[in-house]
What we know:
Two copies of one chain form a homodimer.
Chain A: H1 4-15, E1 19-23, H2 32-35, H3 42-60, E2 66-69, H4 71-75, H5 78-94, E3 98-105, H6 109-119, E4 128-131, H7 137-149, E5 153-159, H8 166-169, E6 172-173, E7 176-177, H9 178-192, E8 202-206, H10 211-220, E9 226-228, E10 252-256, H11 258-261, H12 267-270, H13 278-296
Parallel strand pairs in A: 1-2, 1-10, 2-3, 3-4, 4-5, 5-8, 8-9, 9-10
Antiparallel strand pairs in A: 6-7
Amino acid sequence: MTAFAHRLAAAITSRRTPACIxxxxxxxxxxxALAAAATLEPKPLAAIFARFCCEVIDxxxxxxxxxxxxxxCFEALGPHGMTALAEVIEHARSKQLLVLADGKRxxxxxxxxxxxxxxxxxxWAADALTVNxxxxxxxxxxxxxxxxxxxxxxxxxxxxxxxxxKDFQDLRCDGKTIYxxxxxxxxQLATRTAAGGRYxxxxxxxxxxxxxxxxxxxxAMPHTWLLVPGFGRQGGRASDVQxxxxxxxxxxxxxxxxxxxxAHARPEMNxxxxxxxxxxxxxxxxxxxxxxxxxxxxAGKLR
Amino acid sequence: MTAFAHRLAAAITSRRTPACIxxxxxxxxxxxALAAAATLEPKPLAAIFARFCCEVIDxxxxxxxxxxxxxxCFEALGPHGMTALAEVIEHARSKQLLVLADGKRxxxxxxxxxxxxxxxxxxWAADALTVNxxxxxxxxxxxxxxxxxxxxxxxxxxxxxxxxxKDFQDLRCDGKTIYxxxxxxxxQLATRTAAGGRYxxxxxxxxxxxxxxxxxxxxAMPHTWLLVPGFGRQGGRASDVQxxxxxxxxxxxxxxxxxxxxAHARPEMNxxxxxxxxxxxxxxxxxxxxxxxxxxxxAGKLR
Lengths: 303, 303
């Protein structure tokens, strides 16, 4: 198998877009056609989440390179939710999508190994995982080792999209913010795992809500894939994320979740559709996102 | 239901020890009597993990107030592991043990809500959860809200036991380390949720490997329960954790995992026992831990 960085670049190039669709199923946001059957009981609700996500996957698989299931949404339903998640991951892979498990995991030593073993082509068989760096670089190391051995990837939190990211990430030490210290560690790991290629197995999460920091971090981490959540609902626009890319249109994955998967709730995407046609709204919203990224960012070079 | 801080204090007082047993099942460390059947297949291995943990629970339930399942060990086995985890949590609760789910979760907004909903008396029905603060205080807030509403608790990572905790946690900003900044935020949350009692719904994780910092953090967070991992194998001794306590013997939970649950591998605990008597080794190691805490820390006041 090819290293994750190469597989990601190939998938982005073949779909000609860096759009990543977040799979964040929520009971209260399901299309009416599914919401009618959505009880509070974990088992049937988990089955509905699986069906919803698999249908979203069927729509977006020809259009985008990668999907990002949000682990919390499935965990919230207990073991039944986790069974649904496994089904969703398997379906995405069967449709030739890359799968980024968004769990923001982090722990020390053999515990980090257990997370890495499970998520990165273990029983969950994801292609990549998001990781939290608070515990330090020795806590990230077991994830890096496993990612390299299994040709998988990591995305380490650097500067997150929420206002509270200022609380600790923005504190300054020796003239650099904490997130810049983390970024320096991530770039070293990316370089170390690049194996002669441009990008390594380790990427970084940087919110779309911070265009200036995105620009600085792109420059500070030339060998690092940037995963950029917060496009759409959280206030980020296509022009805000243009600095996340290298000039050739690669180097960034831009995430949209609710705006695409719950597009039935957006009047402009749902126009003329019946309740049972929510998949068409998803298709329209996904194509709209792809168009906007192509128009306003270097991702246009991929067309 | 009573607030978590009260339930925890009552459980510690009634068992007369602050010992917390970590449930970290590992295939390679199982007692020979179980290891013989331990395959690499997730489903049967998950069933063995559940059986092992439930038998450990049967031994320690009369002795300690709380157990701490390590989510990574179960997640590593995929959905079958998660089903086993639910069984283990249910068994612990049926034996009147408090359950601290060690997942070090953390995310923003509605995603944090989903984690909190699931783990804190949702389908997983844990009494408390460990949380990672890197994303900032607004990312901890949904956990606090849910914990308060459901009389559950949180333990926020402050200063972890691994050497790499120095990488980011020890960086200094405005004369304080990052972990001291986090500690200040945690103490505020503890005070806010104390509802007239001594302790709040929010605790802190501080490694047993840092006696000096433990002392300083005990002083800086008077209303905060300290969860202290790293006792035993990671190099911490009973005398190292004495400063985690208030003078009355409350205020801290001391964690031991491998030294107790895999006590069959310690010659001094396994003396004279056959393979099928590993539970006796667990009993001896658990009592030994309790004795040492009583002898060398203010927890002796609880006897």
